[in-house]
From TrEMBL:
Coiled coil: none annotated. Residues 9-84 form the Mor transcription activator domain. This is Mor transcription activator domain protein. It comes from the Bacteria. InterPro entries: Homeodomain-like_sf (IPR009057), Mor_transcription_activator (IPR014875). It holds the Pfam family Mor.
Length: 84
């Protein structure tokens, strides 16, 4: 992604001034380097699983959780059985 494209994307979510500041900080620290930015799949799953455990411990039943999160009964049982 080119600098102007990155700035435009950042401006959509942060606002123009914050986008420019963020881009300047990235360039100062990492300019000229190739960055590998993770897509966040594992952190989103971890947050989802923690939310499922919290809701289950608060009394939500597996059928409601299954419908809300779109997961199989077996997968939900694995999630609630896992302790972190």
């Amino acid at each position: 992604m080119r600098e102007f494209e990155l700035e435009a994307k950042l401006a959509e979510s942060l606002g123009q001034a914050a986008a420019r500041a963020a881009l300047d900080a990235l360039i100062a620290e990492w300019g000229g380097c190739r960055l590998d930015i993770p897509n966040g799949t594992s952190s989103r799953k971890r947050r989802r699983d923690n939310e499922i455990r919290r809701m289950y411990q608060a009394g939500a039943d597996l059928f409601a959780l299954r419908d809300q999160f779109g997961l199989s009964d077996r997968h939900l049982r694995r999630i609630v059985a896992r302790v972190h």
